[in-house]
Write a structure and sequence with these properties.
This protein is of the alpha/beta class. It is 63% helix and 17% strand.
Length: 146
């Protein structure tokens, strides 16, 4: 009886457990592919929040592979801060160099008179209302707002 129990136990771990592991691993990787896109909507004009939280998370998320595709959206007061602050501009350059897509809301940038300076920093300045709405409705993208 003990040999039969041991043999059943052995067969379970040799044939069933590996298959279960592979099934779980496949589901996990599919889940990662579906949820691999992050849009960071940065609206705050608060410099400390930008440097010590928003930028740090966004850059590390890309470098560490937490998200495959990252779009960083500059919206509202953040557009003005970006145009005025060299340290902010340097950090955004690091993000762009790491493969993060930088975009700014054109309506917001124009309201602050900073469209051209943002373009000079390599930021894609465009109307974002429709694009943001599509991101929010998409199952592929997660959107976080700061």
């Amino acid at each position: 009886m003990n040999r039969h129990y041991f043999f059943s136990f052995f067969l379970f771990f040799v044939f069933v457990v590996p298959g279960t592991f592979l099934l779980c691993q496949t589901k996990h990787s599919q889940s990662n592919e579906i949820n691999s896109k992050l849009a960071v909507l940065w609206t705050s004009g608060d410099r400390d929040v930008a440097l010590k939280m928003v930028f740090m998370y966004t850059l590390n998320a890309k470098k560490q592979g937490w998200w495959q595709d990252i779009q960083f959206i500059i919206w509202g007061p953040s557009a003005k801060l970006t145009s005025e602050d060299i340290e902010i501009q340097d950090y955004l350059k690091k993000m762009k160099d790491s493969g993060i897509e930088l975009v700014a809301c054109k309506a917001c940038a124009e309201s602050y008179g900073v469209s051209e300076p943002l373009k000079k920093f390599g930021i894609d300045v465009k109307y974002m209302g429709v694009s943001l709405t599509e991101l929010l409705k998409s199952e592929e993208w997660k959107v976080v707002t700061f």
